[in-house]
């Protein structure tokens, strides 16, 4: 997602992944798990280690000392991908609730409030049409790895909402297109939509509109340095460094496991 666009200020973020995750020891670590009761067909969040889980996560909020918080989410391959995605969203929404709320207040809480103005109506219509098209593609391409992953993304976003509000439902990939969770995902794209959908006052993009990064492996593969300079307002400074370790398959009906471990640095854009 294109998120590094507006730029009053240039930030240099420089860190060693090893050190970053090493910091986990220094601050209080919060843990949460999502369990599944198959008889009741119900997912729940618990904070003490259960016998079995669908997703689990560690979270450490060190924003006050290092400007970073860290989230590490792992899912259990014994459950199907939809369950894993929804539970991963739930556990993240539960653990990072406070930062999600702060980030929302800092960035987009007043973007579209009811009663919607003409631009927000246009946006709602556009996003609803787009989402309906995505749903059609998902249902018509059930064995496609691409659409499978698109569905899992929406499922995870729906799970975030459930974990944040504490109201887990049946696993689903429904989203509220002008709701907090979808708008937070969209913010980089909104800048382009604003022109097309006639927003009277556009969000300003300052500077050149580009940013740069460097990835360097130290001799002997000893360490990995990741540096990025980006630009955005100070209101986007609440950061969560996320590691997702999901045991997804190529499609819902496939049995190949393609373990995905990847790092994401986001300004609480969530997925
Ligand atoms: C960070 O500092 C703020 C302001 O003092 C405080 O309200 C908040 O609880 C602190 N957060 C953590 C995770 O310590
Ligand atoms: C995933 O597993 C759950 C629980 O067993 C089941 O209700 C759901 O239908 C399954 N989803 C898919 C897409 O197979």
Automatic annotation (TrEMBL):
GO terms for cellular component: extracellular region. Its EC number is 3.1.1.-. Putative phospholipase. One of its GO terms (molecular function) is phospholipase activity. It comes from the Eukaryota. Transmembrane segments: none annotated. The keyword Hydrolase applies. Belongs to the phospholipase B-like family. One of its GO terms (biological process) is phospholipid catabolic process. It is an enzyme of class 3 (hydrolase). This is Phospholipase B-like. Keywords: Glycoprotein, Hydrolase, Lipid degradation, Lipid metabolism, Signal. Residues 1-22 form the signal peptide.
